[in-house]
Input
Amino acid sequence: MKPEIFNIMPQDYLRLEAPGLSLDQTLPSGHTFCWQSIDGGWKGYISGKPCRIYQSGNHLIVHGDLTPSEAAHYFALDVPWDKLLAALPDEPHLQQALQSLPGLRCVREPWFECTANFICSSLKQIPHIRQINLELRRRFGQSIGSDAFSFPEPEVIAALEEKDLRACRLGFRARHLLAASRQIADGRFNWAQAMSLSTDEAALYLQNLQGVGEKVAHCILLYAGGRYDAFPVDVWVFRLMRQFYFPKSRRPPKLKNINRKSRELFGPLRGIAQHYLFHWYRTTYVKD
DNA sequence: ACCCAGGACTGAT
DNA sequence: ATCAGTCATGGG
Output
């Protein structure tokens, strides 16, 4: 019998059809940060509930107090990924990325957790962001099972002091997360309002949050807002865009030109293109 | 010791 | 509007 890490009875499980999806590609791909690899599967959170997930071919075995629709929504199983990926342009680098990463998908992250994760992401590596996420849960979330904690609500973080967050090894990001949480908690920022705007306008609105710049705003829109036309440009995307699409320019291209090129090359699904290119470039052009 | 990490903010031009 | 300096922390 497998150890019941999250204290979940083994008979409580869902079996979901998820053709083409790979958990092992998707969950560590740098857009969700609440998942830990366990023996043969993953443990993490969906709809604020702890769960363990195992993959068996085209099926997901989900252990936890979840409804099928909650799990299906999280993994965006309603999105016709085959058609969507086939609709991406026939561009050599992108096609190579698509071919080398079968099963990579974008999940739907909770918006505040996603915002907090990416506020904490600046000058951090992916394992560190996950570590911060789990530490914020452990210290400030509610206990919701054995070794399982909810992600703290904005009101909870808003009531803390900077030193409390620095204890989670947030460093200079502590001030940003605290200020942003207070903007959210007292209504100066409203997620529903952001989602009522176009992607470009929503990105500007999101940047009213302290610690949220253009890159983080686009990450939030892509991974929590489902805006597949959002195009986050981090150091890796900047490098690959420069190397592949501005090979002759001696000086680094300007962000404005990167964004314009992404529209021309990848169209309204450029966020998905970015997701594949980022992960592919990072894992094939860097040996680790 | 040195360099980099899914950046954003600040102040000087 | 653009641009270098600065901001903590961990890992190679």
Observations:
- Residues 122-125, 127-128, 131, 166, 169-175, 254, 288 of chain A lie near DNA strand C (CB under 10 Å from a C1').
- The CA atoms of residues 142 and 276 of chain A lie 34 Å apart.
- The longest helix of chain A spans residues 126-140.
- The two ends of chain A are 34 Å apart (CA to CA).
